Amino acid sequence: MNTTNIINHPLHHKIAISNISLYLNHQLRNITNFKQNDVLPALFKIGNGAKVSFPSNCVVKLDNFVNTIVVFDKEINSGIWKFTTKGKSLKFQYGVGIIDSTQVDIPHPYDYQGSKNNNTICSIASVPYIKGFPKYGSGSKGIKTDDISSVIVDMTSNPRTFCILINNELEPFCVTSIPERVKFVFLFSNKDSEWEFISLEQINMKIDLSKIEERKKYKYEQTAII
Q: Is 111 domain-assigned?
């Protein structure tokens, strides 16, 4: 038998590539903490028709002017996790947040102001949006180009909470009663804007939310996912 011909057969080549991809995805999902060197483009999921590219393995770039979100494909369902990023050339609507990971379809185009099929929490400019509903008066400074922003979810607290640090300073709002299973997301709207993944790490220290006013502790209302 000519094994060389079998290996070089197009069908076997496709199967081999597919198996390698499955193996890599399996290995990536088994990593607990992620640094930049751990990340491959396969970990960033987009909706059908979204136009993004990867200048490097840890940088996602929007290639048109259509609102979209990019999901980091690591489900969080326990512990306290910190997702750290940096934005480049950020203009118009952009932000970071989480999505209920039981939502299978990634919406595209992404209407951050629409409530239909929207199971996200995103901080967009200086306004938090919860399932498409804005929370004005949050006191947020907003994320700017080159800021280091960290989304933190605490799945150990009762209720579960979401908060954001900008340049290591806690934003003056949080969201409570977040879903039991979440993934982190980037939001884009402007061509050539970029988000750089820095790290995803499980942390041991709880974030002190006692300084946040009660009226700025917004609740995520659970509804059935369509």
A: yes
Same domain, 25 and 46: no
Q: Same domain for 202 and 161?
A: yes
Average pLDDT per block of 10 residues along the chain, 226 residues long: 44 44 46 80 91 94 92 96 91 89 88 87 91 94 91 97 96 97 92 93 93 95 54
Q: Which domain holds residue 176?
A: 34-219
Q: Tokens 């080159």 — which residue?
A: 146
Neighbour count for residue 166 (Cβ, 10 Å): 17
Shared-domain flag, residues 61 and 16: no
User: Is the pTM of the predicted complex or chain greater than 0.85?
Assistant: no
